[in-house]
Structure formats: C-alpha cells, structure tokens
Amino acid sequence: MTSQMRAEIGEQPDALARTIGALLPRLPELAALAAETRQVLFIARGSSDNAAVYGRYLVESHTGRLATLAAPSIATAYRRRLDLAGVLAVAISQSGKTEEIVESLAWAAACGARTVAVTNGAGSPLAESAEVALITLAGDEIAVPATKTYTTQLAALSVLGLGLGAAVPADDLRRVPDEVARVIARTEASPALPEIVEALAAVPGAVVSGRGIAFGTALELALKIKEACYLHAMGLSYADLLHGPIAVVDEQTPALLVAADSGPTLAGTIALAERVEGAGARAYGVGGGPLLAAACSAALPGPALPEWTSPLGLIVPGQIMVENLARRLGLDPDVPRGLNKVTQTN
Description:
By secondary structure, the chain is α/β, with parallel strands linked by helices. It has helices at 4-10, 12-23, 27-35, 46-62, 72-76, 99-110, 125-129, 148-163, 170-174, 176-189, 192-201, 215-229, 238-241, 266-278, 289-295, 311-328; strands at 39-43, 66-69, 87-93, 114-119, 132-135, 205-210, 232-237, 255-259, 283-287, 298-300. Its EC number is 2.6.1.16.
C-alpha cells in the first residue's frame, strides 16, 4: 500500500514547476529589497531551518552577502532589541502559522529589517506580515514529514538568491522539475535502494554528512530518519565530523554521505567515504556522481543539476529511502509518534 508520504514525494515535480513558475516573475520585487539591504537573516525551525541552511550557503557563495541563521529565542524569550538596519529578514514556515516564527519576523521589522516570508500558507499570519511573501505552491501536504513543502521552500530560496544578485542562469532552476522526476524514477529502480534500506534496518543509527551547499540536505535527511524511522541520526558537516565525531562511525553506525555531482566539496566527500570504508565501516552515498559511488558500499543516484540547485533534487532519493525504511521497520511514515504538522514553541 502506498503511503501518503510516498504519494507526496511523487507530487514534487509538479509542485516545483508551479512554484518556480509563480516566483520567478517576483525577481524585481526581491531586487528592490536587495538594493536597500546588505545582509540576510534567516528565521526558521525544523525542516524550514534546514532549508535556511541552504539559503545561507547560496547567498554567501553566490551573492557575496553575509547571511546568518537567527536565534528566535532572542526575540521571543530574551526579548532583546538588535540593530537590524540594512538586514533582509527571511522567515520560513511551511504553514505560516508557527507563532514563534511570526513573532520573530515582526520583531525583526521592529528592529529595522526589511522582511520576506517563504511559506506554503497563502493568507497565513506570516505571509500577511511580510513586505514580500513568496508563496510556495506545494498544495496540501497530509503526511507529517515534510517533503514537497521542503523542496518548494528550496525553490523559493533559489529565487531569492537570484533576486539578491546570484550570477547563475535562471534556466538552471527551470530544469529542476524534470530532473526531480528522473531522480524519483532512477532511485526506485536502483538496486542500491533495498541494499541501503536493509543495512539501516539492522543498525541503531547513522551519521549523515555533507558540506557547503549540500550541508542542509544532510541535516534534513538526518531529521527525516529520526522523525519517520526513530533511529539515531547525527547530521554533521564533514569538516566537523573529522574533528572528532568520526569515532562514532563503525560497523553499527554507517555514514550516509551527501554531495552534488560537482563542486568544491565533492572531493572531500569522496575522501571521507574512502576513510570510512578503509576503517571497516560502511559508507553509503546520496548523489555525488560515479566518483562517490565508487568510494561507497552503495549509492543512490542524485540529480544532474549544477551545484547551486542540486539540493532541490538531492534530498529526494533520501526521502524515498526514509519512506522505504520506515515501512521496512513496520512504522507508518505518515504519522510519526509525537509530531504534529504545525509545531508551536514558546
């Protein structure tokens, strides 16, 4: 029986096409805000925070602007006023109803920031409070683990990057929906999928690692493993992993290594796979092309996309793997225990 999560994974090509088509015409609005700001502050929690990590790397690597992740507690718990003149505050929330995120964006505006919302909730409090609302067109998402709302957030952040001056072709973004459809088909046909699922079903947890543009994907994949499969999963930059936590990688704790098929962090990811395998543990690749696959015990295919747009497709084989793993463990991936679609924090 097909889970709702799997059905929504399959809806991503259409959701991405709708979202990209609707948001690319908004570039002039974003460029106007860019002209009046110099740095970017991302405000988010959960999967949206992992999307924000992608946004941060995209902005800093392709627009030359400083980008940081906000600590919403400064606004909502400590209630400290900061000087945010010249800051573009970008709040990201699937529903647009998370009170902490709505309050934090209002706080940023009161501190002098210009504001953008990224949400699937048209007419939501977050959308209504922002100067520019980038509404994703994912449609209703029923399964609790975010899939299409996450990838459409990444699409919105890609458009934001273009609006802030990223010197990359918009056509790279237009290619994404068709490539995601191909990734879905290739992943489900890959013999590596059942091999990796069986391997993970036999261990208590895994380390998930990537770097740079792919780091947010590693964090999101680790979150999905924890949410839907109840396994321990540590999401780390491979630079941080090498500083000590690599000691946890062993026969009972494999490494899932995430990378685009090209870019400056691919060589380091391959070297990490070789080190893990050389130590007698297992490395499983997600993306990274044939070079990463050759260094791993098994690897899922990634998208044939430029590095800057690769996260929009790179998470998809991970989503499929998680959905299969949850069912293999006898779990319902649609309704993880203890979780709701909208999470409120104080």
